Structures are given as C-alpha cells and as structure tokens.
Amino acid sequence: MASLESASKPEDSHVSQADVLAYWNGVPATANGMLGDMLRQYPQISRIDLRGSLNFLTKLRLGKASTERGLLDRGVDCGAGIGRVTAGFLTKLCHVVDVVEPVEKFAKVAQEIILTGEGRVGEVYVVGLQDWMPDKKYDIIWNQWCLGYLTDSELKQLLTRCKAALKEGGWIVVKENISTDIKGKGIFDKEDSSVTRADEKFQALFLEAGLVMVKTELQTGFPKKLLPVRFYALQSH
C-alpha cells in the first residue's frame, strides 16, 4: 500500500533539501566533482557547454542596445557550484556577478575563481535557492543544472521572486536537462535527490510564475548518450 502511494506522488515531491545538501557536501569542490562522470567520460563537455551558453546569450542580445564595452551591468549565477559558469562565461559578460550557492565550500572556491577573472565578484549568498530573496536588480539571472533540486512549488516561488528582481529588458535564463520519458513525466534521481522535468512541465511552471518565454533552443554538440539540455529565456509579462 505504501509503495503504491509513493508511486502515485509527483516526482518533485520526493526532493529533499536535507538529502540534496548531504549529497553535495560529500562531493569535492572541483570541476570533476561538479560534473562527475560526464566530465570524466567527455572531457570536452565544459567547453562545449560554455560556448553554447555564450552563443545563446549573444542571440538574445541582438538588436538590444549594449552597455559600456558591451557588458551587462549585473548578473547572478544561481546554484553556482565552484563558479565554472561564473568564471567561464558570466564574468566575461557582466561588470559584476553575484553568486548563490548553498554549499559553503563551493561558494568559497567560486569567489576565488571570480576574483582572478576579468569580471568582479559581487555578493556571495550562501543559501539555497528555495530561500534566496533577491535584494538587487539584475540584467540576467542564470539558472543552470540547479532547478532540479527544487519542488515545483519552490521553483515557481523562486521564478516569481526572480521576475521581480529583473531590470527592464532583463532575462531569466534556465538551462536544464530535459526528461525523455515517453509519457512526459519527470525523472527522480534518488542519489542526489533531484528531478529532471519534461519540457512541457517547465513551460507550464513559467506560465504559472507570470513569465513569457522569449526564446528557447537545445544545446548542441553534447554526446547523444546524455539527456537533452534546453535553454529558456524568460521575461516578465
């Protein structure tokens, strides 16, 4: 009876913040730790990922007036880990990049990496995304490979807060693995307590949060054995 009840629950209901933190606190603060087997099997994956992100944002900015030196004023990297995306991409596009990362050892490494790059570190928020309350305005709010650690309710609330933190014309960007379940269901991973959502689920949550999807596309160049990765660029109504 208990197993039937558990099986009937939505996949996101199994996400546990305690389990998420326990998993990531046991992972080394290195690139291998962040990307795990994916980086070991496909050493080129990080380079392809960063290039894809740069290309996506470049397309987004076409036709929009650039700021000084073509840089955005302020961005934030949500679920930044050790700052791979922050240092490899966002600091090259923003004058200042804030970091949101719940694992303290990762946040410390991220801050060190940003300080040695072309950009400048702003605030470092050592807090989970479910509890982060943005207190600044952003040109870009980047969420990559981190939203699977939130329930649907937590994700919708986060997106609503992020919407209020956007500057005029700014974007929330989501870059996440996409479920390939033939019934469109999410995939729960017990190891790190995460859920991989279907494209339809993401789009429904964006609408519920009052966001407009202005662009979406798949990341290209990744090995076919991996789950598809999709970009979404979102703006306020």
Structural class of the helix and strand makeup? alpha/beta
Strand portion: 25-35%
- Count of beta strands: 9
Strand/helix succession = HHHHHEHEHEEHEEEHEE
Compute the number of helices: 9
Rg (CA only)? 17 Å
Which percent range fits the helix content? 25-40%
What is the mean predicted local confidence, pLDDT?
Answer: 91
Topology readout:
Layout: H1 2-8, H2 17-25, H3 31-35, H4 37-41, H5 45-61, E1 72-78, H6 84-88, E2 94-100, H7 104-115, E3 120-125, E4 138-144, H8 152-164, E5 166-177, E6 187-189, E7 194-196, H9 199-208, E8 211-218, E9 229-236
Parallel strand pairs: 1-2, 1-4, 2-3, 4-5
Antiparallel strand pairs: 5-9, 6-7, 8-9
Key traits:
237 residues, 9 strands, 26% strand, globular, disordered N terminus
How does this structure look, described?
It is a single chain. The protein has 237 residues and is of the alpha/beta class. The protein is built from 9 helices and 9 strands. The protein has helices at 2-8, 17-25, 31-35, 37-41, 45-61, 84-88, 104-115, 152-164, 199-208; strands at residues 72-78, 94-100, 120-125, 138-144, 166-177, 187-189, 194-196, 211-218, 229-236. The strands form 2 sheets. It has a 7-stranded mixed beta sheet with strand order 3-2-1-4-5-9-8, with helices on both faces. The protein is globular, with a radius of gyration of 17 Å. The model is unreliable at 1-6 (pLDDT under 50).
